[in-house]
Every structure is written in structure tokens, then in C-alpha cells.
Amino acid sequence: MPEMSLPLIAAWANAAFLGVAGIINWFDGQKIRALYRRWRIPARSYRTVGFLEIAAAMFLAVPHLRAWGIVLAALILFGSTVLLLKHRRYAYAMGVIVMLAMLGAAVFAIPTYDPMLYARL
User: Which residues of 96-120 are buried (b: 16+ CB within 10 A; e: fewer)?
Assistant: First the structure.
């Protein structure tokens, strides 16, 4: 089992957060649609956001795709922060900002490139 470090914990915490958020966005239609309608976000975009969150979570969980997951998660979390601040949901925005900051630590959980490993293939 790999050693658990702060960067790895940050990557997995973001993966779990985005995975749960993606599942909620994808399957919890009534409540999410009502919120999106109230905030004047286009209909059905909750499915797209849910798909992107699930994709980011999967990328974060796979070590060699983690860099792509960090980029996608950063875009999602930044957009969420802007949206929450725009609608004066400051407490929720703080939680998202913490997750965004944890992505900075998750960068150190990206595996290094080993040319000898790929030379043998």
C-alpha cells in the first residue's frame, strides 16, 4: 500500500468531494433544477456539471491522470466559487475555496515521469 501523504490525501479528498457532488448533480433532478432555475442557469446544465465533476473525480483517483484531474477540478471549483460569491453564499464558498486550495497540495501527488520505465515498453 502506498504511503499516505498530505498531497495524496488532498487528491483523494477532492476526488471524493467532486464524486459526491457529481452524483448529486446528475441524479438529484428536482432540487438541483429548482436551484439552477432560481439562479438563472440554463436548464439541463446540471447534467453537464455532474458529468464534469465525476470525470474530474476519476482523473484525480488515477495517479497518471491526476494532472488532468487537477486542471479540470480547478476550473470547476473556481467556477463554483464565483457563482456562490455572486449569489452571496459565503459560507458555502469558503468550503469550495478550501477544496481549491487543497488542489495546490494535490499537485505534489502527481507521479514523476520515469524514462527507464517507459524505455522498457
Answer: bbebbebbebbeebbeeeeeeeeee
DSSP alpha helices (H): ranges in the chain?
6-27, 29-38, 45-61, 66-86, 90-106, 115-119
What is the pLDDT at residue 20? 94
Burial tier of 15 (Cβ tally within 10 Å: 0-12, 13-18, 19+): buried
Residues in the chain: 121
What whole-number distance in Å separates Cα of residue 46 and Cα of residue 102?
24
Q: Which three cell numbers stand for residue 5?
A: 501523504
Q: Is the pLDDT of residue 36 over 60?
A: yes
pTM metric for this prediction: 0.84
